[in-house]
Amino acid sequence: MWNRAKENKIVQFLRKMIRRYSAHNVSATSAYMAYYWVLAFFPFIIFLISLLSYTKIPVSVLLQYLSEMVPDSLVPVIENTIKQFILYRSTALLSVGGLVTLWSAGNSC
């Protein structure tokens, strides 16, 4: 008796959860949010690197930390990109990166 009542509650819970999942369109909303968060990530990286070019943090320190986090095959590509950002500082890139990041992240909510 006890097992059947407990099993019945679990089945009712699962049915209710599936109905609510479908009613609230969770899968589409999740895909929508993931798309905009990924879309916001790359402008954020551009904004961050542009912002770091205005600081006194040595490039070697930044590259050392990045080389610990990324695969070895990507280090030369990332190193070249960061050096280009620092060499050619751009306030326009800083502004556009920040605005696109805010727009993309704002659309995901």
Descriptive overview:
It is a single chain. Helices cover 83% and strands 0% of the residues. By secondary structure, the chain is mainly alpha-helical.
Helix percent reads over 70%
Give the percentage of residues in beta strands: under 5%
- Average residue pLDDT: 82
H/E series = HHHHH
Shape: elongated
Radius of gyration: 23 Å
Number of helices: 5
Q: What is the first-to-last residue Cα distance?
A: 46 Å
Tally of extended strands? 0
Uncertain regions spanning at least 5 consecutive residues: none
Class by SSE composition = mainly alpha
The largest sheet, given as strand count, sense and whether it forms a barrel, is: none
